[in-house]
């Protein structure tokens, strides 16, 4: 009996000891994330702006997510089936999923999201699904079926929280989605609820206690602090005023590697495969002339951009498809090395002679503050070929409007994400059906019927090798037509405290998904935590005290019983 009581005392304390030893997730605390600017809004169904999806990835849910290998994994959909012909996709939704206002998430919300929001306003999803979608049916509240006119090979690669966030029908139905007041006070079904937005300062999200992934999230809140200066953000990180930095500059990354307690993550962006891209307005002279575009391609020094601006953290781009999508990447396309002799000859042939100042013509380059350094470098490089580039620095949303809505530009700039499939991120920038006043669409105004056809054929082909052949041909055409200047593929690095666990462990878009998995090793970091080693010591002393107390209690209980028997 004595041994049993002692074992019971140890068993009571053992879970606490085991949790410390194994590093089990702990609840509580806040993570502060530095962001360079306020997002354009918090409705991820009407834009592809990265800053919006960075924050909304914790507020909303997609049907699936993607791991490091770009394999679909369950999110709002617990499981799914795909018909052998690739035309029908059936999804079974989590039954305990609720929007943050308590309304259940149903198949009707998915149907409404696609038909009334994504297919009209979301550049990537609108272009990818396009006219191929035949109908969406909802057999019951937790089953949704997509039927396509032709096989659609990339659908599971498309429908994550960035490209197909599930929106609440009861909030958006009957109200213009571009002016809905919930665009700045969102209601989603993700791991965190929106709390407040103080523009120019911060956005705060708080834990969703009814999240359908039981036990998650672990954090109490996530705060996105607006810090336009990368230098300021880096200093704040070093002072531990910021816990998590995205897109760390190459210079800061080199310094952070020497600082104890900092983790640098290079994985977790496989789902983006970004290509930094200079956008010419093909509807305006002189950029409508292919000879001029080829001259510009030969005037640009891509190696300089990678070596000097990126400090070697990146690779020169050869076309619209990133080398990270190796199965679809064509390495044999025509390449444009820097050659000012060729550039000058092409410009002379196009009839653009130098004037007395040495300039041939002027181009208006519209860009946001985040692209200032590369804009200045490109201006200097093109000037050597006699092209006078006038830089127009605008706030990010204003730059987007100038390029994609008003078309008031000669040159623009974008970080185009390939996505996990060329049909998701590349297609939208080159097919003619996506020319229009839609952010991050075919801003160049490029038209080529064969390119349209190749992307359509690739989307409908289930054999991956045959799909790749279509993409190879498309890249051959595009690099000859030069509707864009694909400059380089950046190598993005993020930095966070080593006390943050659960970060960058599985997701190909870890910056958007991190909050549902992250937890502080010290628990509630908002309180002054006792060091882990000391907590373990305190717990062991508590166990010893508990065991000792139990043993003493048994001893005196036994003596009392014996004394009673003697009497």
Short note summarizing the structure:
The chain is of the alpha+beta class and 567 residues long. It has helices at residues 2-22, 50-56, 107-121, 123-129, 155-158, 169-172, 230-238, 250-256, 290-299, 302-309, 340-349, 372-383, 396-405, 422-425, 427-430, 449-460, 464-481, 510-513, 532-566, and strands at 30-35, 64-66, 72-74, 77-82, 88-93, 133-140, 143-148, 192-198, 202-207, 221-226, 244-245, 262-265, 274-280, 314-316, 361-368, 387-394, 411-417, 485-490, 494-497, 500-501, 519-520.
Percent range of helical residues: 25-40%
Question: Which CATH first-tier class of the largest domain would you pick?
Answer: Alpha Beta
CA gyration radius, whole angstroms: 28 Å
Uncertain ranges: 1-22, 527-567
Which structural class matches the secondary elements?
Answer: alpha+beta
Folded structure, characterized:
The chain has three domains: 2-23 and 534-566, no CATH class; 30-268 and 493-520, 3-Layer(aba) Sandwich (D-Maltodextrin-Binding Protein, domain 2), CATH 3.40.190.10; 274-490, Dipeptide-binding Protein, domain 3. It is built from 19 helices and 21 strands. The protein has helices at 2-22, 50-56, 107-121, 123-129, 155-158, 169-172, 230-238, 250-256, 290-299, 302-309, 340-349, 372-383, 396-405, 422-425, 427-430, 449-460, 464-481, 510-513, 532-566, and strands at 30-35, 64-66, 72-74, 77-82, 88-93, 133-140, 143-148, 192-198, 202-207, 221-226, 244-245, 262-265, 274-280, 314-316, 361-368, 387-394, 411-417, 485-490, 494-497, 500-501, 519-520. A seven-stranded mixed beta sheet has the order 8-9-10-1-11-19-12, with helices on one face. It has a four-stranded antiparallel beta sheet with strand order 4-5-7-6, with helices on one face. Strands 14-18-13-17 form a four-stranded antiparallel beta sheet, with helices on one face. β2 and β3 form a beta hairpin. α1 (2-22) runs antiparallel to α19 (532-566), α3 crosses α4 (123-129) and α16 runs antiparallel to α17 (464-481). The longest helix is centred in the last third of the chain and has 35 residues, at 532-566. It starts with a helix and ends with a helix.
């Amino acid at each position: 009996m004595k041994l049993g009581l002692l074992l019971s005392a140890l068993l009571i304390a053992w879970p606490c000891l085991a949790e410390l030893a194994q590093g089990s997730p702990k609840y509580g605390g806040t993570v502060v994330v530095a962001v360079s600017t306020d997002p354009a809004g918090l409705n991820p169904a009407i834009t592809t702006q990265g800053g919006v999806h960075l924050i909304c990835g914790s507020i909303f849910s997609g049907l699936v997510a993607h791991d490091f290998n770009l394999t679909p994994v369950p999110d709002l959909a617990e499981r799914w089936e795909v018909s052998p012909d690739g035309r029908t996709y059936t999804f079974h939704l989590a039954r305990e999923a609720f929007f943050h206002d308590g309304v259940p998430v149903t198949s009707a919300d998915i149907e409404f999201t696609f038909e009334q929001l994504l297919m009209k306003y979301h550049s990537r999803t609108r272009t990818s699904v396009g006219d191929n979608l035949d109908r969406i049916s909802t057999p019951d509240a937790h089953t949704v079926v997509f039927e396509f006119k032709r096989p659609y090979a990339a659908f599971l690669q498309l429908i994550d929280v960035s490209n197909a966030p599930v929106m609440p029908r009861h909030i958006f139905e009957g109200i213009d989605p571009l002016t809905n007041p919930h665009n700045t006070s969102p209601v989603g079904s993700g791991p965190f609820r929106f709390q407040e937005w103080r523009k120019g300062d911060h956005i705060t999200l708080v834990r969703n206690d009814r999240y359908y992934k039981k036990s998650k999230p672990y954090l109490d809140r996530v705060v996105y602090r607006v810090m336009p200066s990368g230098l300021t953000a880096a200093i704040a990180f070093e002072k531990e005023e910021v816990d998590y930095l995205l897109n760390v500059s190459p210079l800061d990354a080199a310094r952070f590697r020497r600082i104890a307690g900092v983790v640098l993550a290079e994985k977790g962006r496989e789902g983006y495969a970004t290509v930094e891209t200079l956008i010419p307005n093909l509807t305006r002279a002189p950029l409508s002339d292919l000879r001029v575009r080829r001259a510009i391609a030969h005037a640009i020094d891509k190696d300089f951009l990678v070596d000097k601006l990126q400090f070697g953290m990146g690779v020169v781009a050869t076309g619209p498809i990133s080398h990270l999508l190796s199965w679809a990447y064509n390495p044999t396309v025509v390449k444009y090395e820097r050659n000012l002799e060729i550039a000058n000859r092409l410009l002379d042939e196009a009839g653009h002679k130098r004037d007395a100042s040495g300039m041939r013509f002027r181009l208006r380059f519209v860009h946001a503050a985040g692209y200032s350094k590369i804009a200045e470098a490109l201006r200097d490089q093109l000037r050597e070929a006699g092209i006078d580039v006038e830089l127009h620095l605008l706030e990010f949303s204003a730059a987007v409007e100038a390029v994609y809505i008003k078309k008031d530009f000669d040159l623009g700039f974008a970080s185009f994400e390939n996505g996990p499939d060329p049909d998701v991120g590349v297609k939208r920038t080159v097919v003619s059906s996506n020319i229009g006043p839609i952010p991050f669409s075919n801003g160049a105004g490029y038209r080529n019927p064969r390119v349209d056809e190749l992307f359509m054929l690739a989307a409908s082909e289930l054999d991956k090798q045959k799909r790749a052949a279509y993409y190879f041909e498309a890249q051959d055409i595009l690099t000859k037509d030069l509707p864009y200047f694909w400059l380089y593929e950046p190598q993005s690095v993020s930095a966070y405290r080593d006390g943050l666990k659960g970060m960058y462990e599985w997701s190909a878009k870890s910056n958007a998904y991190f909050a549902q998995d992250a937890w502080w090793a010290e628990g509630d970091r908002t309180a002054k935590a006792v060091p882990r080693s000391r907590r373990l010591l305190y717990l062991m002393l508590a166990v010893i005290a508990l065991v000792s107390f139990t043993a003493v209690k048994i001893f005196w209980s036994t003596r009392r019983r014996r004394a009673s028997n003697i009497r």
